[in-house]
Amino acid sequence: MYLCTRIMQPSVQTAAAEILNMVHAYMRENPQSELHRCGKMFGVLIVEDGYLAAFSAKLDGSWHHPGFVPPVYEPQQPPVGVGKDESRRLQKLLFANYNFVNGKGETKNLLDIFANHKPILPPEEYFGNPSNRPSLNPSFISLPPSGAGDCCAPKLLQYALTHGLRPVMLAEFWIGAPPKNEIRREGVFYPPCSGRCMPILKHMLEGVQCEIFEPERTKNNLREEDIERLYEDEWLMVVNKPAGLLSVPGKGNEPSAQTLLRAKPVHRLDQDTAGLLVLAKTPDVYSELQSYFQRRDVLKRYEAVVKPACPETMTHLLNHPEGTISLPLLPNPYDRPRQMVDREHGKPAITRYLIRSQRPDGTLFVHFYPLTGRTHQLRVHAAHPDGLNAPIVGDRLYGEGTDLMLLAAEISFPHPVTQQLMHFSLHPLVQ
Q1: Domain boundaries, the chain
Q2: What residue ranges in 160-261 does DSSP mark as E strands?
Q3: CA distances from residue 157 to 165, 168, 201 in whole angstroms, order as listed
């Protein structure tokens, strides 16, 4: 009933395009659909004989729509007005009814799957009541995040594995209006969320040869000789960090600028961002340079190529070629390392921008001057509808593609020992 059969196995792009067209037709027939106000994630699972489709959570108040697989479990509406302890008991009962199979024939419910995972609280809970914080209340460890199990990826795998279908490739993509806080764009593929879905998928994919589709990243095989040293003395160095190289060590064994150069970065560039990076060679110099950044005694200029989301955005930016973006940012608790805009709990993030030129391919060349240093600040401020509404080209997290067109192009600061003004700049990102 739910399998779209074909003579030949479709690609995820073909299957996603068909679902996109089908959902657009549904939206035209239902002008009051929630998708016009805020879209949602849809998914396709390629199997040997065709593909399956799903949407996350409910669509317009219903778990069931023709052509989409059913939910793993259909929860009932909880009673109104229950206390906190009773609410947690009901949550545990609910999560115990979400049972997921895997390729080995094993079944686990959500409580089992998340038993050893750190608790995830949304900002309104984490900031709203300090007693809820995981470090103060270990009882949160036993509860999965809200909405776990209702995303489209677990729905698709559950249906396939319980109906004798062999999964081949899984893909998720956004359809409908963008959400208020996160950055999602219609038709763009996204990896499953790290907080809600990945622990479930890790269990479900045991014994299954199924790929998760996402844009390929260039593997980091960089060596010390691949890093251009622009300046070095006994106290510090300034280098041109290549894209793909971490600034500081991460969770894995990937090389970083810190490990390769045996010096400590005073500030950080995203792994996908290339450009000027300052590293300290002694603890005292590191502390002094950090104080410069904290006091904003350092001039930083970035260059980027952005793609306006629509012709109206292009016109607006050309008519307003400079300005300031102020959108407070917060790590997305359900999907790290992505950041989200949160006007209530987010930390201040301010960026000045200057449109330098319009390019023949419909993109814009922009200078960014960050006045704060939040994670992914320029990427979010470029992509968010309340920012430029023009994602940086090649931004795999907030736009499309994998080769991020963002360069830390210029930096100036006083030398912490000699007090000489240090100034460095790179060749322009584009001509």
Answers
A1: 4-212, 224-425
A2: 167-175, 189-190, 211-212, 228-232, 236-241
A3: 9, 10, 8
Residues in the chain: 431
Q: How do residues 309-321 score in pLDDT, each as one tens digit?
A: 999 999 999 999 9
Mean pLDDT for 405-428 is 96
C-beta atoms surrounding 309 within 10 Å? 18
pLDDT, position 217: 64
Q: Which of 315, 376, 319 is nearest to 351 (CA)?
A: 376
Report which of 55, 4, 17 is spatially closest to residue 33, judged by C-alpha positions.
55
For residue 58, what pLDDT band results from cuts at 50, 70 and 90?
very high
* Dihedral sign from CA coordinates of 220, 221, 226, 227: positive
Query: In sequence order, which residues have a C-beta less than 8 Å from that of residue 353 and are 6 or more positions away?
Result: 322, 323, 324, 325, 366, 367, 368, 369, 381, 388
What's the chain's Rg over C-alpha atoms? 24
CA distance 137 to 140: 6
* Arch. (CATH architecture) of 224-425: 2-Layer Sandwich (3.30)
The arithmetic mean of pLDDT across residues 179-203, rounded, is 92
**21-30, 63-72, 124-133, 410-419: least confidently modelled range:** 124-133
270 is catalytic: yes
Mean pLDDT of the chain: 90
Positive or negative, the CA dihedral 92, 98, 100, 105 is positive
Q: Degrees (nearest 5) of the Cα angle 313, 319, 321?
A: 90
> Which are the contacts of 223, defined by CB distance < 8 A and separation ≥ 6?
255, 260
d(CA 21, CA 23): 6
| Annotated catalytic residue, options 270, 335, 342, 395 | 270
